Amino acid sequence: MAWNEPGGNSNNQDPWGGRRGGDRKGPPDLDEAFRKLQESLNGLFGGKKRGADGDGRGSGGFGLVGIVLVILAALWLWSAIYVVDEQEQAVVLRFGKYYETVGPGLNIYFPPIDRKFQENVTRERAYSKQGQMLTMDENIVEVPLTVQYKISNLQDFVLNVDQPEVSLQHATESALRHVVGSTEMDQVLTEGRVAMASEIKERLQRFLDTYRTGITVTQVNVQSAQAPREVQEAFDDVIRAREDEQREKNQAEAYANGVVPEARGQAQRILEDANGYRDEVVSRAKGEADRFTKLLAEYRKAPEVTRQRLYLDTMQQMYSNTSKVLVTGESGQNNLLYLPLDKMIDNRGGSVSGSGSSGQSATGSDMGTRIVDDLQQRNLRSRESR
């Protein structure tokens, strides 16, 4: 019943505290207003609302609870939907057990019963390591190392090892120490780094496969190793001394490679010249012997003709190789061809001294005299025959 209807309000007051007939005394009571607001809030959040009977509930509480539930559901749905990129994969665990591996695209999972691990499986990652190692010849060197790797099996990477990248670091140190410990210092510091890197990569990958970490090593780079800082100067002196030694060896080998082949060539040339001279002398001797044998047979058949032929051949050989002097008479007749054999022999034997030279000159002079006499006699006979 309304407050202004007859019998509706025994106190004849309106809701604002005034009496009927418009005789309100002042503004509404603030305490009463705060009390009503508190009852309204209690009703919205499920509290009991004070009323005429003291048991009623406000109907506005159910609407706010519904709004809160909708907001929570939206937040849950927002966190449950996720996107996997082209370079990524995701592993979903349901109640702590492997459920599935999700590829690229829009996906959903159900937390908190599901857990999601999302990683980039195509990006190459790098890990660097540097430490002092003991070589096979008991020398200490500092070896810097860089390992490049990527995730090849996300399920193994997530489930099999608690901290797979820490396991990678430990395995790298183990493989590095094993390889450096079986290599001499010279190989570690110079040209042996490539072979070391290959061996470290193979051994490291074998460790990771044994642990089933899901990691694949793509490249191992062993950088320039050096001695510890405390002994670096002494170590540099040793290296310089070895370099000087190697340089001297190379120079000696170069000199030997230049001298030895030349000496061998000269020795071979001398041997060939000696062999050629031997063959020439032997062949000439055999030829002279054969010619003399054949000439003897012909001489026995015709001594005079053979003797004449030998004489003419000898004269032809001498005239063709020496200078000649033609002696003519006063009337232009009785020409005489004179061959100065004594002068020729003296000129040829001028370098020979002693009695041998004198003997040769005398012999040549006698031979020249005999030849001149023989020619004169022939001319006389030819004139008499005319």
UniProtKB/TrEMBL annotation:
Region of interest called Disordered, as start-end residue ranges on this chain: 1-30, 349-386
Topology in the lipid bilayer: Single-pass membrane protein
GO cellular component: membrane
GO biological process entries: proteolysis
Pfam families: Band_7, HflK_N
Origin superkingdom: Bacteria
Composition bias, Basic and acidic residues: 20-30, 371-386
Alphabetized GO MF terms: peptidase activity
Chief location of this protein within or outside the cell: membrane
TM spans (from-to): 62-84
UniProt cross-references to NCBIfam families, sorted A to Z: hflK
Protein task: HflC and HflK could encode or regulate a protease.
Recorded family membership: Belongs to the band 7/mec-2 family. HflK subfamily.
Subunit relationships: HflC and HflK may interact to form a multimeric complex.
Protein known as: Protein HflK
Taxonomic lineage from the root: Bacteria, Pseudomonadati, Pseudomonadota, Gammaproteobacteria, Pseudomonadales
